Amino acid sequence: MRILFTSAIAGAFFAAFNSSSAAFAFTPSSLINTRQSSSAAAISSSRPFGVVRKNVGMTPSALHMTMERKPRPAYVPGQISDPDYVRIFDTTLRDGEQSPGATLTSSEKLEIARNLAKLGVDIIEAGFPIASPDDFNAVKQIADVVGNEVFDDGYVPVICGLSRANKKDIERAWDAVKGAKLPRVHTFIATSPIHMETKLNKTPDEVVQIAVDAVTFAKSLGCDDIEFSPEDAGRSDPEFLYRILSAVIEAGATTLNIPDTTGWNMPWEFGNLISQLKANVKGAENVVFSTHCQNDLGLATANSLAGALNGARQLECTINGIGERAGNASLEEIVMSLALKGADKFGAENTSSGKVLGSGKLYTAINPVYITPTSKMVSEYTGMKCQPHKAIVGANAFQHESGIHQDGMIKNKSTYEIMTPESIGLMRGDAQSGAGIVLGKHSGRNAVGTRLKELGYDLDSDRLNAVFARFKEVAEKKKGGFEDEDLEALVSDQAGSLNELWKVTGLQCSTGMEGIPTATVKMMGPDGVERYVAATGTGPVDAVYKAIDQITGVSVTLEQYGLNSVNEGIEALATTRVVIVPNEGGPNDSTSTNAQTGIEKERKFSGAGSDTDILTSSARAYVSALNKLLSWKIRRTSTSVNEKSSGGIGDAEPAGEPEIVVVD
Predict the structure, then answer these.
(1) 567: which of 153, 320, 613, 617 is 20 to 30 A away, CA to CA?
(2) d(CA 490, CA 448)
(3) Tens of pLDDT, residues 60-73
């Protein structure tokens, strides 16, 4: 088990933590059309065009901004009628979910996919359908639902499923996505010498034949939108790439994705590779070239933009840049780079060949007011927080501490900010709140909901009710009012409520220098019956977790435990994050197949919890992770929870008489 210690641990039983967090993000004011409005709406959840507030010397309700995405060319596989248009291919739900600990439930994937559609991404790679029945069902649900929700401007996203280059994978992927209005199958095989020789044990001739057969089979199923990727293209022989890509075009591929799988290339190397492929691959004029850049050297965004400069017209990326190892190219970085620089920095004068595709005035149809809500949603559901200095969506992206910077910001915000936070859906307001609201135990649901919208959280009624109920519980114990960080912690705390099977209803601990740490935990199960167990442990948190294990009947390993304060002071709110892994061979054994290697490995599940009491916070985080595990297991086995099974209620007894059963 790896425990992440912070300064808060030193005073573990006092809530006097010292750390800080803040709201995040931004976007260019030049993209915004302002209009007067008497209605008070932040980010619309039912319309494709977002409405966000902006303060320009007046109250937030006096002026609104409507940011509408630009019109996009009609979608045709393998063709883009406007050579300046760049398609955005989001792979958060596939490559992003391959990040350790980033397991998502089907309901969470559907919510993220819907936000990606509001954002306006051209293609959503919804997953790797062959990996597991649950992955197949999640991709199919997104294809059937999001892939058929047509927006007012006629836009509907392409829904894509990934497959290896074999018939079983391809057929499974096609079955998952074919219900969408615009389905796509994405197949791949490695082409670098090290991959072909050591991983595939195939000759170049065999690899070419496998690739051609894969594309041919996908086309025979009725799929007319086929993407092919030569894995590790960044380290492949260019001559071999010319050969295999020419062959798959002839077989029916419509998009050629060029991955820098290991993040090996420099921007000028990768840009030149795209240029050479377009010049030497037979039939290149009949397909769309794409990039997929990993961030091992921190160059994923730069390499993607170098690809666009040299003729790539599809850029693959993820929200917050999550993904394998060091992650992928970040969607928000790519989109905002093109929004700010696309019109004048992608011309022929910036290429080595002196030639560009189209006029060099590149643009996307992304509606950036949804960047912040989508970033926050992905962060909360995956349990992967952005680093504070992350471009566009980091907590410090709009924070200014230097006196010189503060002076410049007071005189003119453009002195140190190249884009406004409001344009990507982050409401900075005046003095932390445009309405002067101080949240406390007497605040109502509307006040809490308004502040959450200002912070970029677009919650539906059920989720807002859950956050508000939790807000009331904590506000009764917390003095001094709620800071923005406290409210955001409660949103994180309720992120797993959609999958709530078990709920902690009571908790009592005793510990000390001489006594044995003991915890009594009472929980409400999926059958509505309360059960309790008392257990001992090496410490109070360990005792609490052992009691929870007894009640729920799970067998897991706690891989990570992190405890942080949200702000300062004795009344500070604590936020706990955990990552658990089901024990191999146990009742909750949960494996999945890696899309790149085909190797099965145990899934990881993350959870978060917040409270002014660190033990309650720890218990809520652990139960949140267990609920994700149990929900995933139920869907995978397609069986209902059996109270008598090991995955149900364990050894606990219904709550009644105050008899305590101590379990060693």
Answers:
(1) 320
(2) 11
(3) 332 233 456 789 99
